[in-house]
Each structure stands twice: as C-alpha cells, then as structure tokens.
Amino acid sequence: MISNQSLSASSLASSSLPILAVTMGDPAGIGPEIIVRALSRKETYEKCRPIVTGDAAVMREAVRLLGLDVNINAVERVSEAKFEWGTIDVLDLHCVDMSSFRFGEVQAQCGNAAFVCIRKAIDLAMADEVDGTVTAPLNKEALNLAGHHFDGHTEIYATFTGTKKYAMMLADENIRVIHVSTHVPLRKACDLVKKERIIEVTELIDDACRQFGIEHPHIGVAGLNPHSSENGMFGYEEAQEITPAIEELRARGFNVDGPVPPDSIFAKAKCGQFDGCVAMYHDQGHIPLKVCAFNWNKETGKMESASGVNITLGLPIIRVSVDHGTAFDVAGKGIASDTAMTLSIDYATRMAIYRLQHK
Predict the structure, then answer these.
(1) CA distance readout (Å), 3 to 9, 213, 347, 350
(2) Measured between alpha carbons, how far is 170 from 297 in angstroms, rounded to an integer?
(3) 156 with 166: CB under 8 angstroms?
(4) Environment class of residue 89 by beta-carbon count within 10 Å: exposed (0-12), middle (13-18) or buried (19+)?
(5) In what order do the strands lie in the sheet with 19-23?
(6) pTM value?
(7) What is the pLDDT of residues 53-111, one digit of tens each?
C-alpha cells in the first residue's frame, strides 16, 4: 500500500487533493462492490476526492448488498460533488434498466453502461475537470454485444484521447512491467521486437517510475529467447534489436540493464534489483505478475484477492485499473475484495499529485 506520506497528500488541504473519476465498470460484475468498499474507507478521502461515473441505482444496490453505512449522492456534474467520507458521489448517467438487470450475466446493456462510464471519465479528464481516472473491470463480450468493438479499456482510452503510442504497465509491489507488445498472436509478437519500440516503452516506464516517486529508476530489459539467446545460439533478436536499444538508451543517460534472461528478470525485480522491467510480449510480463499478485484459496479453488494494477502509459490523462476481471461468479454476493481497487486509487493519486506539482 502506498502511504499518505509517500503520496505527498498528507500536507495538502482537502480542497487541493486530486479529483479522481472512478468508472463503475460492467455493473453485472464486482465493479460496483469493490468501488463501494474502497470508497467507504476514511483513508481514501484523506488522499483524493473520488467521484464515480456510473448509475446511482446500481451503486445503491451495491451499498445495500454490503450493508455499509454510506450514502449515494447522485449528481449531474463534478461541481455538485460533496467529496466527504460517508458519502459516495456518483455522476449519474442513468445507464442501467434495473428492471432487467441481473448480477453475474453477460448483458448488452451492461456492456453499454461500462462504455458510457469510461467515455464520461475520459471526457472529464480531457477537460481537466478531474485529475485522473480509475477503472473497474468490464466484460469484453458484453462490450461487443453493445456494439462497442474494442479489445478493452486500453484501446478505448487510446481512441478517445487520440493517442497513437501507448503501452500497458502492470504493477504489484516491487514488480512493475511494461510490454513491447500485448494482444497479438505469439508468432507476430516475435516480429514486433524492434529497437524503436523497446526504446519507446523503456522511456514510458522510466517516466512512470519517476511519477511514483522513484528519482533514478533502474530498468531491466528482458531478452526474448531462452537465456537471452546465449550469444546467438537460440535466436538473433537480442543481438539485432534488444542490445542496440539498450546501448542507445544508456548513451542517452538511462539506467538500463539487459538483455536479462526472461526466467530471472522478475525474480530480481521482486527482490528490488529493478524498479521496472520491459517484457517482450504479453505473457512474458503477465504470468509472473499474476503469480505474485493473485491470491488463490487452495481449498475452494477460487481467487480471494488480487493486488495488481494496470496503468496505461503514454496517454495525455491518467488511467489506472484493477488487474482482474468482472468475476461474474461472485458478483452480487458481497464477498469481492477491494484490494486492487484501493491500490489503483493509490497509484492514480500519486501520479496525479506528481503531474499537478510538475505542471
């Protein structure tokens, strides 16, 4: 957990704390529940001013399910929010028909609700009405059923902020990882390991680490092949693309090591040797992060909590998200953990304060 002191929020007056738009996510999932839990905590309001973009009726149902002593304050604009502990401000988009709404089901109306909540948060951030955004999980099937044909949050944010160069960063404690490529076939991912892209994402994660308060980030760049190709025995990408990228970054003053063998880089990061890691493709970075961040119950076979967060770098606005899905199997039961949501708010707060202080 990021402390209030490290966030530099403890010295700020409540009226100066960053405003964060928190999207409801797919209402049929656990998004509303984990938001309500996170926003029921006094410490949340000691570091930021949150407002939910969502449906007030759904959020009231989440409060009822959890039995918490908090009120939902439905507003039409950010200026009407109270930003008081004990009251959850919801910018009410009236986007869910409660007569046909059901938890734990894929519904087009829920996919649409998730989409309009995201669009509203993006619009608010682009207009500087909020200082950052935090997103609850959406369901991609529901999103597409509603006619919104995106792979997920990242692509929505990139489209509606006009961003061409961006990357996903995952974080859990000491492990912070950015990817050269993400949602592409593995055969294509190998072809995308290029010097220019490696430099680009390394610059992004270095800047992100500085926003988290790490003054001189030490970045590890993974190899693509086993043992980072063992001097060409197992591939050529290290010699032709990865090493030249590292050499150029070093010449420009970045503290970069690599290519680090993929089977050891994350163990070193977990122990604090690297502040950030550059993975060459989706699963290379996701698997170690989720092994560390996802807490599974051996007896029930179910995930009890998740502490990882997902941050989209390269955007003109802040976007931090929980790194887990909608969990339809437990939605509406009032048992979902808000660990990742609370951490997402922490990260977004830290980034917002950094940006406000460096304007």
Answers:
(1) 9, 12, 10, 10
(2) 23
(3) no
(4) buried
(5) 71-75, 87-92, 49-54, 19-23, 132-135, 319-322, 309-313, 167-172, 175-179, 276-279, 218-222, 255-260
(6) 0.87
(7) 999 999 999 999 999 999 999 999 999 999 999 999 999 999 999 999 999 999 999 99
